[in-house]
Design a protein that fits this description.
Layout: H1 17-34, H2 36-39, E1 45-47, H3 51-70, E2 76-77, E3 86-87, H4 95-100, H5 102-108, H6 110-137, H7 141-152, H8 155-160, H9 172-182, H10 189-227, H11 232-266, H12 296-302, H13 319-335, H14 338-358, E4 362-365, E5 368-373, H15 376-379, H16 397-414, H17 420-434, E6 444-446, H18 452-455, E7 468-471, H19 481-491, E8 505-507, E9 514-516, H20 522-533, H21 541-554, E10 556-562, H22 574-585, E11 589-591, E12 594-598
Parallel strand pairs: 7-10
Antiparallel strand pairs: 1-6, 2-3, 4-5, 8-9, 10-12, 11-12
Helix pairs in contact: 1-6, 1-7, 3-5, 3-6, 3-19, 5-6, 6-7, 6-9, 7-16, 9-10, 10-11, 10-14, 13-16, 13-17, 20-22
Protein name: DUF6311 domain-containing protein
Pfam families: DUF6311
Organism: Micromonospora pallida
Length: about 600
């Protein structure tokens, strides 16, 4: 996520439109290739390893479009977690995406819009890095293309393409880098600061955690780069204009983000920290040497299970690539000027710092916790940082690798090796390091259809406008059907129904920290137990009274059991759910393709 200061625009050679077109086609082809499993049937397939997050982002797109067209607050909603609501500012609200793509969401539906954004994210990340490299850093289009593709389709990016619309929006990073260094332009600090402030606000809306990591990485890089003796004169000359621009950026971004930031840190339903264990969600030291699952090497059986889940393979560069990077660094250092060495040194320090931080609070080697404390043990106690997952800090390393590979290709093109075997060795080295990491398509599965009870609008006969409907099991991360139903109703402008639970981050975790979904109550605990185990729980009169209290608390008007219930982590036993609900509430009625228990409005 870091780079050296771009040279003056006058030093950039004329654009090679053919190379640019080839790069655009390659980037789009790779993006479609990675997401090809979903393109087979956008509304009928889901990402296998992360269907719950996909459901969440589809809901965010539908809710954001609905909020925009109905004048609702896009950062807080009472459609989930009745009666307390959900603070979307402390979640990943992707408000800008939801607003920009609202027409598409209404036209083709949230699942298809999700797929369009995911595919564009991957392609745009490659093109944005290519633009930054080719226009500001390396004159060789081939070098820029190699670096951009390595970054955009690195193991971490492909891993997060498993439904993370925020982390796959890597195109934001090169734009942030570009506008940050533009603050050095003399006499344009006001304009450049304002543009950068708007970009920061957009980045916060789409990927707040990614923006934070980018800011940390650039701070480390700039501190090391500016302190180098070769750059002190240039730094002193540019500093006044740079600081004025940063001040304008802070004012503009602060004005645009005043309400979201207040809601995030002081609003209702906020929390501090996160509900995730930083030791579990840290990078295994051995992961840097391993290969990811969705790669040629992974398909060949060289993958490992060193990540906490398939969406968090944030390093996984493999031994050949790391060796190649070390060789490239040494090669560049040997041929570099003093100013270029300052850039290389700053890149190296940044990569080392974020590698160590990604290892989390204690060292884990090949799945074994050593108990040896690491710097994140202390840094992770600081505000804001305590909400970050340390493993994701490894994502900073990939752009450094891409930059070093691009610089090396550019150097070799400018000054080709005198001996043919040397040039061949470089080509073989790049091939051995990069070919095993070529991405393979994301795994997908057929998703359970949305019941006709929802798609036909029949639910409106059983739920008052804005009233509460709940599927069983209740909607949480492992059973996300309810949010898919709600997203469908919102996107097809059927009206609103609220859900008593939902997949979101909210308060209720230990020591005031966050947790996924609401704190469980009797009814949802019983439904979860029945659906997961296939056995009817023991039910007494006292149990029924607690369940009635839960339903009154949520103001539930309709309880719905679909014939096919999606379990994101395990299969759901629909028959056990029907038996349990019948024991608690009496016999249901059959309406279209669901079992329905109606309750009087409260």
């Amino acid at each position: 996520m870091v780079t050296g200061p771009p040279p003056a625009p006058s030093s950039v050679p004329p654009r090679n439109r053919r190379a640019d077109l080839v790069m655009a086609l390659v980037a789009l082809a790779l993006a479609v290739w990675v997401t090809s499993g979903l393109w087979q049937n956008p509304n009928g397939r889901a990402i296998t390893v992360n269907s719950s997050d996909q459901a969440l982002f589809e809901w965010l797109l539908a809710f954001g479009a609905h909020a925009l067209t109905h004048g609702d607050n896009p950062l807080f909603t009472y459609l989930l977690n009745v009666p307390d609501g959900v603070n979307l500012a402390v979640n990943t609200s992707i408000t800008v995406y939801a607003a920009v793509f609202a027409p598409l969401t209404y036209l083709i539906g949230p699942p298809a819009t999700f797929l369009v954004i995911l595919t564009l994210n991957l392609a745009a990340t490659a093109l944005a890095w290519y633009w930054l490299l080719s226009r500001h850093l390396v004159p060789t289009r081939l070098a820029a293309g190699v670096g951009a593709l390595v970054i955009a389709f690195s193991p971490g990016m492909v891993s997060h393409a498993n439904a993370h619309l925020n982390w796959s929006a890597g195109w934001l990073v090169p734009l942030l880098v570009w506008r940050l260094f533009a603050l050095r332009e003399s006499g344009r600090w006001l304009r450049n600061g304002a543009i950068f402030g708007v970009l920061v606000a957009v980045a916060f809306s789409i990927a707040a955690e990614g923006l934070f990591f980018t800011a940390l990485a650039l701070t480390v890089f700039l501190a090391v780069w500016a302190a180098h003796p070769a750059n002190r004169v240039a730094v002193r000359a540019a500093l006044p204009c740079f600081l004025r621009g940063i001040a304008v950026t802070a004012v503009v971004a602060g004005a645009l983000l005043a309400y979201p930031l207040w809601l995030h840190f002081a609003g209702p339903q906020r929390f501090h920290g996160t509900g995730f264990d930083p030791v579990v969600h840290s990078e295994d030291m051995a992961a840097y040497l391993a290969y990811p699952r969705r790669s040629l090497a992974g398909e060949a059986g060289l993958r490992t299970s060193l990540a906490p889940n398939p969406t968090e393979e944030n390093s996984f560069f493999g031994v050949p690539l790391l060796l190649l990077v070390l060789v490239c660094f040494g090669f560049l250092w040997r041929h570099a000027t003093a100013t270029r060495r300052a850039t290389l040194f700053a890149l190296g320090v940044t990569a080392v710092v974020f590698t160590v931080l990604s290892w989390g609070p204690q060292a884990v080697v090949d799945g074994e916790r050593t108990g040896f404390p690491l710097p994140f043990e202390w840094l992770g106690q600081l505000p804001v940082i305590n909400a970050a997952l340390p493993a994701r800090l490894a994502l900073v390393v990939a752009p450094v690798i891409g930059l070093l590979l691009a610089y090396t290709v550019d150097r070799l093109r400018a000054d080709p090796p005198r001996h043919r075997p040397t040039g061949l060795a470089w080509a073989v080295g790049y091939a051995v390091a990069l070919l095993p990491l070529l991405p393979t398509p994301l795994l997908t599965i057929a998703r359970e259809p949305i019941p006709e009870f929802i798609t036909s609008g029949a639910w409106r006969k059983h739920v008052s406008p804005g009233g509460v409907l709940t599927p069983i099991p209740l909607t949480v991360d492992v059973t996300p059907d309810g949010q898919r139903w709600q997203a469908y109703a919102l996107a097809h402008q059927q009206g609103e129904f609220a859900l008593p639970a939902g997949f979101f981050l909210g308060p209720g975790g230990p020591d005031g920290r966050g947790r996924i979904g609401p704190v469980p109550r009797t009814f949802d605990s019983l439904m979860d137990q029945a659906g997961r185990t296939g056995r009817t729980p023991i039910i007494t009169d006292g149990t029924r009274e607690l369940v009635r209290a839960d339903l009154r608390h949520w103001r539930v008007e309709a309880i719905v059991l679909a014939d096919q219930v999606h379990g994101a982590k395990y299969d759901i036993d629909e028959e056990a759910l029907r038996r349990t609900a019948t024991e608690l509430l009496g016999p249901p009625q059959r309406v279209h393709d669901v079992w329905l228990w109606s309750l009087p409005p409260r």
